[in-house]
């Protein structure tokens, strides 16, 4: 039988305590000590977080994260704070935050109860719902009309989980395809290997606006979900969350967030310089009257 000597046991305990100390160190403390701030971003979640023609991460959520980064820089006194950018996919974004590989996820992630078991969220920056993208000549208007046909959604997303549940609970008989990202899903509809792409409607409008042939697609159907989208951050980092929540509430109540909304949802955006022309919904306006990180989902 293997036995650990007392000196060896002491060394092991010291290593374990050191590991726990590093793990327990909050983001703000790490930045104060000269660490980098890591922002996770998406590559095709237009207009929230995506790559422009030069391959740089841009978007509505990216702009918000940069505002939050500036508050973090000032709070920590890290005048020369370095920001690192880490690309993530829908399938790995939660793990990246949960494992501490990034400090903020700047994208289009839904704040829901299941995810709150693993990560934290700040005040929602958008409220949307899942609908269907189909080809312009499609006659489909309801999910039930796709019985026996291929329907695609992106791996690791809430809409994928919803259509899977609807399929099993109501025997809709959909043939569900999981795409690696939004662009792949759009391509499958364009090529006819899928009849519809189910995703948050704002992302669908963004994909259509940035596609080479926007007239080839349309968004149809009733809302299948209600999705409060929010920036994700590590669970348990109280100091970081308090700072981020305060700044998000300030941006909303001061209306400083409104020009950002107009820039990304009402004006032409890169790379194609096409406007989504998507006015703020009554759901978001009402929610922002009393901004909070608490959502009933």
TrEMBL record:
Protein name, entry field: Amino acid ABC transporter substrate-binding protein
Domain of life: Bacteria
Family: Belongs to the bacterial solute-binding protein 3 family.
Signal sequence coordinates: 1-24
InterPro entries from the UniProt entry: Bact_solute-bind_prot3, Solute-binding_3/MltF_N
Record key words, sorted: Signal, Transport
UniProt xrefs under PROSITE patterns: PROKAR_LIPOPROTEIN (PS51257)
Keyword DNA-binding among record annotations: no
Residues in Solute-binding protein family 3/N-terminal domain copies: 36-268
